[in-house]
Design brief:
Helix content is 37%, strand content 30%. With 330 residues, it is an alpha/beta fold. The strands form two sheets. A nine-stranded mixed β-sheet has the order 14-13-12-11-7-10-9-8-15. The longest helix is centred in the C-terminal third of the chain and has 20 residues, at 305-324. The protein is globular and about 65 Å long.
Length: 330
């Protein structure tokens, strides 16, 4: 049995504990949180032990795998302690609060031969998995643009980072995953309307090395949750609804005809709209299952620490662009 522990028993940590308890071949042995009531309640629900000091948990329980679900500013501290105890890590996104902290975390895990996976859970959304497969198969032809809308109300639990680091890192990782290429420049307009310390609205642009343009519309100002992804290419438009795990293809009816002069004048036309059948599944379950199987098999995780660093670097660049009103080149 793989011995698992969760450090941080907030909303995400509670879900990590639940999934570990459900996974075959995994025993949830302990949960830690500075809030004793939260730690005790979560641990007792899954017949595990609870701690208020995560160092004691690591020393006494000696888990094989650890989920780090504490506030972002504490990821570095906890990760170094856990790797020092020889634990494989699933670190909730974003990987860390600074790039130097993230680099040290990843380097330490690499030196010790330990798995460090970053919890960019949207990679495991069945609609995104199917979208990636179809893009790799060339079903959209040349990709032109990826447009993301991730909107919702302000989460009072988040205090240490703004909306770019907390939310936009999801979509920055997905964009890099879909394009499989590097970003050459970014530009952002950010606003601080409600959040007391950080930005809560982002309108961002990215230019990828292969010519794809990324558009980000992310905020904590919208009273309803919106999670949508649009990928436009020469053969049509894919639309993902992250929340419902739905995937649609809007076909360009002209793309399969000869691109003669008349066809070019006609431009893009409205073709069929196809709802693609998706086998729906909880992304977090798929993510933690993948993490555990990578640990068991000694294989590279699908979302590496280096992927986490890339998403954080892009997010930091967008924050800098918004604050300094300039294009940031890579």
């Amino acid at each position: 049995m793989i011995k698992a522990a969760v450090i941080g028993a907030g909303s995400m940590g509670k879900n990590h504990a639940r999934v570990y308890d459900e996974l075959d071949g995994v025993a949830l042995v302990a949960v830690s949180d500075i809030d004793v009531a939260s730690a005790r309640q979560t641990a007792s629900r899954y017949r595990a032990r609870y701690y208020t000091d995560y160092r004691r948990l690591l020393g006494e329980e000696k888990p094989d795998v650890v989920s780090i679900a504490v506030p972002t500013r504490l990821h570095h501290e906890v990760a170094l302690e856990a790797t020092g105890q020889g634990c494989h890590l699933l670190v909730e996104k974003p990987i860390a609060d600074t790039l130097s902290h993230a680099e040290e975390m990843v380097s330490r895990a690499e030196e010790k031969g330990l798995t460090l996976m970053v919890g960019h859970v949207e990679r495991f959304n069945p609609a995104v998995v199917e979208l990636k497969r179809r893009l790799d198969d060339g079903q959209l032809g040349k990709m032109f643009q990826i447009h993301v809308r991730r909107l919702g109300p302000f989460p009072h639990r988040v205090r240490d980072v703004g909306v770019v680091i907390d939310l936009a890192t999801h979509d920055l990782d997905v964009m890099c995953h879909l394009t499989q290429t590097d970003v050459v420049r970014v530009y952002a307009e950010t606003e601080q309307e409600i959040h007391t310390e950080h930005e809560d609205s982002l309108s961002g642009l990215l230019r990828f090395d292969n010519g794809v343009v990324g558009v980000l519309d992310v905020n904590w100002l919208t009273p309803t949750k919106v999670r949508e992804l649009y990928v436009t290419g020469e053969k049509g438009l894919f639309v993902v609804n992250y929340l419902t795990q739905d995937l649609y293809l809007y076909e360009n009816e002209y793309i399969d005809s000869d691109w003669d002069r008349l066809g070019m004048l006609n431009g893009v036309g409205e073709g069929d709209m196809i709802k693609i059948k998706i086998g729906k599944r909880e992304p977090l379950y798929a993510e933690l299952e993948s993490f555990v199987r990578c640990v068991e098999g000694g294989t590279q995780p699908p979302v590496t620490g280096r992927d986490g660093i890339k998403a954080l670097a892009l997010a930091k660049a967008l924050v800098d662009s918004g604050q300094e009103h300039r294009i940031v080149e890579f």
